[in-house]
Amino acid sequence: MSDPTTAMVDSRPRGLAGDAWNDLRRSKIFWTSSVLVFLILLMAFFPTLFTSADPTDCALSRQHDGPSGGALFGYDFQGCDVLARTVHGAGNSIQVGLVSTLLAGLIGLCFGMAAGYFGGAVDAVLSRGIDIVLGIPFLLGAVVFSGRLSGAGDDGVTAVTLTLGLLTWTSAARVMRSSVVAAKNQDYVAAARMLGASPARLMFRHILPNAIAPFIVVMALLLGANIAAEATLSYLRVGLKGEAISWGLQIADAQKHARAAAAPLVWPSVFLAATVLAFIMLGDAIRDAFDPKLR
Amino acid sequence: MLGKRPWKMAAVAAAISLLVAGCGSGDSEDPTATANTVVIGINEPQHLLPTNATDSSSAQVLNSLFYPLVSFDAEKKPVEVAAEKISASKNNRLWTIKLKPGYTFHNGEPVTAQNYIDAWNYGAYKPNAQGGGYFFERIAGYADLNPLDPDGAGPEKAPEPATNKMSGLKKIDDLTFTVTLSAPFASFKSVIAYSVFYPLPKAAFSSDGVIAKGFEDKLIGNGPFKMKGSWEHDDKIVVEKYSDFKGVVPKIDGVTWKIYGDQMAAYADLVSNNLDVQTAIPTDALANAPADLGERFLKSENSVFEFIGFPTFLPQYKNANVRKAISMAINREEIASQIFLGSRTAAKAFVSPVVSGFRENSCGDACNYNPTKARDLYRENGGPDEIKITYNVDGGHKSWVDATCNQIRASLQVKCIGEQEPKFAVMQDKLQNKQDIGLIRLGWIMDYPLMENYLNPLYGTNGGSNYYGWSSTAFDTLVKQGSEASSPEASIKKWQAAEDILADEMPVIPLRYGQNVFGYSERVANVEMDLFSKVNLYEIETVV
Amino acid sequence: MFRYIVRRLLQMILTFFGATFVVFALMFANQDDPIQALAGEKPVSDSLREALTERYHLDEGLLGQYWYYMTNLLTGDLGESISGRDISALLESSWPVTVQLSFMALVLAAGLALAAGVWSAIRRGGIFDNGVLAFTLLLLALPIVVLAPVAQWIFGMELGWFPATASRNASFYALLLPAIVLATTVVATQLRVTRTSVVENLRADYVRTARAKGLAPRRIIWVHVLRNSLIPFITLIGVDLGVLMSGALVTEEVFNIPGVGSKLAQGIRTEDGPMVVGFVSVLVIVFLVMNLVVDLLYAALDPRIRYE
């Protein structure tokens, strides 16, 4: 983490973003997590750089065999190469995780900001809307959305992404609303308002930077939770379909045979944990850099 | 010191909340502690009224509460149990059932012929919407109780049935009644072993043809055990010995039917000795079962038959040789041993081995794994480049469909995908609308142990489970001739001839026969399971 | 304040009907063939199908079915599930154990999240902080579908520390393992949010003032900072209680607890509209009350927030 004193000494005039970049550049955590995220994205888009084995080449005769020349992580229950499947599964998992989290974040941010800032009738309508969505059981939402959003022959990636996005934005929205409610009553907001700042300027320049920290944390965790939630969806039998490969599917399948062979369960979990770690660290670093209280 | 207080308060608050949350429960009663009783795991039965109970869990419970008219001996021949004698007229249309005297229901009422007639009429009457109602179809007069909606889904409502009594049931005296069938059927005696044919006491009805409210929760039967308390939904059903029972007396004093939502949980209880018998150990636990249970892990045959069907409206599978080639591309033994860990066996016939008349490998070469021959045959006959196997994802079929596809891909060198549908009903819908859903996975559990109970519903032109639309007049005729033959032996001859047509035509690929895969605790011994996946309650005993 | 509460209570009624309608509509959208769903793969005879369709008004449209349901509900009759069970009896037998389970999980999670969150915020970057991060990662990477069976196997079957399964009348002790497993679903987020918010507040002016006044560091943290950091945490609790109640599905299945989660799942799978809506109605009321309490707590924690 950067030391607040250096930032204070450095007195060249800069915008918020300039300050942030200056901080980030010197943050070890930022660079480590960026490299990790880059590697993960590389794996998602170009899996063949990391393995040459075919993830669909499976034979029961190799069931649960240990690591061998080509297959570093051994073979799973169906006799497929665990390494190949984990690497090729990254694409779907990252897509599901990233896109659904972005979707949830966008909805949550809009709902939360609007409800918290405007209060009154707007807040009442939006908040009760959130309550209604919260009342929808996860399984029901998942069954309906992924059932109806995916057609025959589809691998279900879009449906699962939308399902998770549409069902997980509520906590982000409520957290955002609560920090906006707390921030808008601060003295500096009142001061800015008295100086004649427009609502948009108040919202985005003054309230948002002060209210976004818990939201970013929730987002970083939601990303991990959503990648893992895909495993839960598979367990509930509304996950990815057909020949799709993903960490969630691997985990849900391997969990049943965990007592017989742990490797097919452990490896995708390790990749999942590393991905979440990378995004949590990145989130922390960015949040610190943008935090005006550090100036 | 003040600074410590929030910590302490938080700790105290947490402790109090935990205690409050835990209060008012404290049920430490250990169901296994009672002396000569056993705890058997089931799922929540959908219904317990015999005519409405068609799932295996309710069949287990009813087996303890009721005494059937007939049951099956080691050769799967029906023998009289609660009936003294069951005889048929020469043409097998009029059946006379004479009951053993002296039997009573658990409330003391004597068991009479009228109890059977009332129960069966209730089950067949359409507005009662009984799940087992179709069992009475063969009895004359069933159609009068079940008038069908003339325009199907259209605006017109179905007419009210004119009567709620089947004309085919006639009481002769207190212990005798006759059943007239709408068509001759030589093996009717085997059919009435099923639980929908149990009698109901007068106390079950609040008025003529109306079941008293709450009867299902406090069932009164004629069997070796009676209900202790009432059905505790999602928790347990306790039954205890009925002292006035005149039949074969079980060795145990009672059974606690413990209800599980998920069989993995039941397995955890079995291994930690909280459950005495688990009747279906889930596949996911099978890898550990031999180590966890040792000799207390057993298998026995049951009637499950699993297969893949070819929808007849798909042109790419019109050629019987293509169907045979796909069948030969599948290594059934490998899947049975690697995916099902020996809990299923490879199927090479079109009926289950539990019925008399079954012949080993009646399917011939087409059911033997032979990848090279399969590929040649497939190429010669121009099989499609892509094969799709559709399954319902809620049935746990993913592993074996994936493995089957992997085998087909390796043997035939074509693309093969397992296509998921959320529910069985969605599959049925798509079949009805003739959508290209590829091959479909299907399974069957028999209602009574006759070849006919596989041939007719699965492959008959009007078969209730013939979802793929295969139809052969020659086959239908042979099955019908078999049903109306003069003796069970003559029936089997005809039915076997019908099965030979299946082997030629290959409308489905037989895959596996099911087995009861069960385990028991150290507290019990002599655990057996029958073809209907029921525990033999007359043999099981406790050991100290 | 009083008028605010009254207004919220009035909103609740509207929200309640809105939520039941939305759920009813979702169930309707998911309805393929409830009769076949109940029968499994056995063929359903035409006669049975016709009789059941009429009994449960399955041939009516969405509005027709909702109308039947609501008219019954307003006379206090929750109706009968498609499998023929009395829904009010089902609710009565399923809710207590789930409330107990989720409440235990919530207390466990909140206790751990607060203690560990504050501590790792104070020692930011230290061993404890990194250890806690590793722990949250572990929880996130192991979805509950893995954690629940593994915990049952290790602590219930192998070590025998806890009963392997619970039941409707389970003791506090028997519910402890499922509650711990359930707590893991929410503890990671609670913990990280607490940590962030405490870190933020440690830098606030009033902390500097308090320090300058010479207050004990402990008092500053546990009284001043914590109180100001609780808002996001409390918000999460309001959401989490509901998540726990409806999300108890996997835990309840694994540990054989016939609670709301497992019954809801069963209702959804058998396309049982009346049963699902019955459970969700209660769930929605729980949410509405929880979120009202949370909003009132905001004002109690931060005097600058006022409701009028």
Q: CATH superfamily of the largest domain in chain C, please?
A: MetI-like
The outline of chain C comes out as globular
CATH topology of the largest domain in chain C: MetI-like fold
Residue windows where pLDDT falls under 50 for at least 5 positions of chain B: 1-7, 9-14, 16-33
Extract low-pLDDT stretches of chain C. Answer: none
**What is the string of helix and strand elements of chain C?**
HHHHHHHHHHHHH
Helix content of chain B: 25-40%
What is the class of the largest domain in chain B in the CATH system? Alpha Beta
Mean pLDDT of chain B: 88
Instruction: Give the percentage of residues in beta strands of chain C.
Output: under 5%
Instruction: Tell me the major beta sheet of chain C.
Output: none
Query: Regarding quaternary structure, how should these chains be classified?
Result: heterotrimer
Shape of chain B: globular
Work out the helix count of chain C: 13
- Radius of gyration of chain B, in Å, reads 26 Å
Give the name of the CATH architecture of the largest domain in chain C. Orthogonal Bundle
CATH class of the largest domain in chain C: Mainly Alpha
* Cα radius of gyration of chain C in angstroms: 23 Å
End-to-end distance of chain B, in Å?
Answer: 60 Å
Helix content of chain C: over 70%
Protein name (chain B): Oligopeptide transport system substrate-binding protein
InterPro entries (chain B): Peptide/Ni-bd, SBP_5, SBP_5_dom
Domain Solute-binding protein family (chain B): 78-465
Signal peptide (chain B): 1-21
Fold topology:
The complex is a heterotrimer of chains A (about 300), B (about 550) and C (about 300).
Chain A lengths: L3 H6 L6 H10 L2 H18 L36 H37 L1 H16 L2 H12 L7 H11 L1 H16 L2 H8 L4 H37 L11 H9 L7 H28 L5
Helix pairs in contact in A: 2-12, 3-4, 3-12, 4-5, 4-7, 4-8, 4-10, 4-12, 6-7, 8-10, 9-10, 10-11, 10-12, 11-12
Chain B lengths: L4 H18 L14 E7 L12 H10 L4 E3 L5 E3 L2 E6 L5 E6 L13 H12 L17 H4 L23 E5 L2 E5 L7 H4 L13 E3 L2 E2 L13 E3 L8 E6 L12 E7 L2 H9 L5 E2 L10 H5 L3 E13 L10 H9 L3 H7 L6 E2 L24 H10 L5 E7 L5 H15 L2 E7 L2 H9 L6 E6 L7 H8 L13 H11 L4 H18 L2 E13 L3 E2 L15 E2 L2
Parallel strand pairs in B: 1-12, 1-13, 16-17, 16-18
Antiparallel strand pairs in B: 2-3, 4-5, 5-7, 6-7, 8-9, 10-11, 11-12, 13-19, 14-18, 14-19, 15-19, 20-21
Chain C lengths: L1 H28 L4 H6 L6 H10 L6 H13 L12 H36 L4 H15 L2 H15 L13 H31 L2 H9 L3 H31 L1 H6 L5 H10 L3 H29 L7
Helix pairs in contact in C: 1-13, 5-6, 5-8, 5-10, 6-8, 7-8, 8-10, 9-10, 10-13, 12-13
